[in-house]
Q: What sequence folds into this?
């Protein structure tokens, strides 16, 4: 539902070629994904564009949320699940690491205050540990730690699909579990100039080569990567993801 970095693309006030591009693939809302399994809709991350994404892609039902980490570009839209709670007349489970659950309790304290104010998001936090599969509505999901500079971020492996965002390195134990993935989504902020907290494109390509998936998709992309020109430079099984991309797994 979104493939952009924290500022989105175009960036406010920027006149670079990508920000001025008319190619719809160069328009990137903040990173988010929706996984549908046997009619169950599981969303990964609710950034500040979440409401806009739900409207754009006609999301009518959400069964659960997976949160990767508490940075605002991945969490700020959590309040926008309110209409889903109202329409569905049920709590929505939110799965996250202990670190991220604590941040949610702090940043969205009004959701947990008693007496509960009418209309606040009805969420139930489910805290997990790493390297142990979790059951999300009958779907087995493996949460794995990856490093975002010094912050631990959660990658998720769901069957043969693995989603990694905001990573600058992957621990060996996580890498061993990710190997065998057929479809990999991984972040790459820009083409050059190393970044302390994100892979850049050559690093992401190195990781993809280690994991050797059937197909790989790059996400969390800044305005330093033009879609059309960069896609021509990539290996045949590596693709720049774009907002609205749909994969049948």
A:
């Amino acid at each position: 539902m979104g493939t952009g970095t924290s500022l989105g693309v175009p960036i406010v006030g920027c006149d670079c070629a990508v920000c001025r591009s008319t190619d719809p693939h160069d328009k990137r809302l903040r990173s988010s994904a929706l996984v549908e399994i046997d009619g169950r809709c599981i969303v990964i991350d609710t950034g500040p564009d979440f409401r806009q994404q739900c409207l754009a892609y006609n999301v009518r039902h959400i069964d659960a949320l997976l949160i990767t980490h508490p940075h605002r570009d991945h969490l700020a839209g959590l309040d926008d699940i309110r209409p889903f709670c109202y329409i569905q007349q049920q709590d929505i489970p939110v799965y996250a690491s202990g670190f991220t659950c604590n941040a949610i309790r702090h940043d969205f304290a009004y959701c947990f205050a008693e007496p509960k104010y009418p209309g606040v998001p009805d969420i139930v936090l489910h805290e997990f540990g790493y390297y142990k599969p979790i059951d999300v509505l009958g779907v087995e999901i493996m949460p794995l730690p990856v490093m975002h500079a010094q912050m631990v971020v959660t990658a998720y492996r769901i069957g043969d699909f693995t989603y990694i965002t905001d990573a600058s390195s992957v621990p060996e134990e996580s890498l061993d579990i990710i190997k065998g993935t057929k479809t990999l989504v991984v972040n790459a902020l820009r083409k050059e100039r190393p970044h302390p907290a994100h892979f850049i494109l050559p690093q992401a390509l190195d990781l993809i080569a280690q994991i050797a998936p059937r197909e790989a998709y790059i996400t969390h992309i800044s305005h330093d990567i033009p879609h059309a020109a960069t896609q021509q430079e990539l290996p045949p099984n590596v693709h720049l993801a774009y907002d609205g991309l749909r994969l049948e797994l």
In short: The chain has seven helices and twelve strands.
